[in-house]
Hints:
By secondary structure, this protein is an alpha+beta fold. 25% of the residues lie in helices and 42% in strands. The longest helix is centred in the N-terminal third of the chain and has 36 residues, at 3-38.
Amino acid sequence: MSKRKKASYTLLIIVVVLVIIRLLLPSIVKRYVNNTLQDIPGYYGHVEDIDLNLFRGAYVIHQLKLDKINGDNNIPFLNFEKSDISIQWKSLLDGEIVSEIALYRPKITYIFEEQVNDTVKTTNNDWSEALTDLVPIDINRLSITKGKVGFIEFNKSPDVDLYIDQINLEATNLRNVEDKEQKLPSSIHMDGISIGGGKVNLDGRMDLVQQIPDVDFDFSLEKADIKALNSFTLAYVGIDFEEGSFDLFSELVINDGYLKGYFKPILTDTKIVDSFDKENSSIFKKAWEGFVGFFKFIFKNQKQGTLATKIPLEGDLNNVDSNIFSTIAGIFKNAFIKAYKGEIDKSVKFKDAKEEE
């Protein structure tokens, strides 16, 4: 056999082997991913399909689902319609090997832990570390398109069901490969629609390459229909609203493990459902709603029709506390001095989150 024919046969064998590997690789990767998900204590996970793109250095996971095992039932926890995981070529050209992830229509449903009867002792690290193992290299960019995050509690009456839908998120330079000298090198922006049709926005910067991340976030939720919160207010304070809107503004910073920030909820033109004419309403509910209505009338800003307060947060991350006296003072300030403006205050700076010596 001539050397040319021998070389041709060798090349043909190599091509055939590569084609076979390429055909078998998606099944091998799918089996690995499913085994990883099913080995998480207290959870059951599964993926429908996996596509490989060797040219992009990427693989796409279709229909990744992870359920929390609750006795004989499974409670949906994660449902990612499509996850695109690839090498970030821009950083690779700069000598950094990092990845980027694009999630399409991901859904996360958090069930309050006290509602789950664990048959196996689990922690949040179990599932988060398993999902991290599916990405072989550090994540530098994360994008989310039309995602949803929900919070559910079942042992209340009625069941509490809160969520933010239509989430679009972009987080960049998470592994700090672009500007290693900058204090907060990573940026994040998120927008979405809350329960009640409120407009949600989050903007900030952060540094995740340390044990306790540094962050500087501004958050706003504007013009949500307060009736959508009735499951929450009925469950926790025994009242429901007939009309009105709800806003929430917040700033939050963490600097070297020290946290400082606030939450500023505002209720505008709200009206509580009147139980006095309802035969099936208990005397206790009538009395409570009467008290709340009186409290709301006394402490609301009469000119703007708002009831608001400002709840401060400050301390180290092992002892974050809200000051009840500041909360009460905030109610009085809004009622008798001035109404809080419906906007982010820009009063909390990153340098402020530093514990005094």
